[in-house]
Amino acid sequence: MSGRVIISDIDGVILHNNQLIEGADVYIDRMEKSGFPFLLLTNYPSQTRKDLQNRLANAGVTLPVEAFYTSAMATAAFLERQTGTKAFVIGDSALTHELYNVGFTITDIDPDYVVVGETKSYNWEMIQKASWFIMEGARFIATNPDVAGPKGFPACGALCAPIERITGKKPFYVGKPSAWMMRAALNSVDGHSEDSVIIGDNLNTDILAGVQAGMDTILVLTGYSGRDDLDKVPFRPNHIFERAGDIDVF
Fold it and tell me: Is 195 among the residues known to form the active site?
């Protein structure tokens, strides 16, 4: 690979149920020795970089905190470029932390934005307030379009669904497969899409995001998508490997 930045998904590529996938340690070692900057990227907005660093450490991999990038960080980077600095947030502290970092006020008084991430405390009042604010002109932003996590855990897309039905408005989804997520991550390390690669396990998020951003793409078969899924999409990854530990192009 001639790329200058490596972006890797975490779940399904490196971890499965918080355990290292076979060969993932070899994969990470190759990234570290490649000489290229790399980021471990996740659509999950409810963990900070430090949380993710600790998660990998518990699985036996030690990486600097700067090696991680989340959809919450990408959402803050997007909103920092927009007008308005007040947000009503449905999400956990990792999301509000990133918004505070770019100068946002978290409020339920005349917000400029409704920002939805993921939280276990989702309730009727949140749905009502978010819907009313959007109907009154607040812009609707969501960290990622994923509908469900492991064991049916409701993800961001599911939390947005009732608000969409009430308001008739869809959010701008920041996370994969949006090309914005890729560009935000690359911008954080001064990278360029034409010189970079994304490694992921999901054709409809990781690989599609890379295709839309103009990046090289590598699909590994240890997670969501299998070879049988290739005929279901009109695009193809540049490379396919059984597992991340088999990747030999960087």
Answer: no
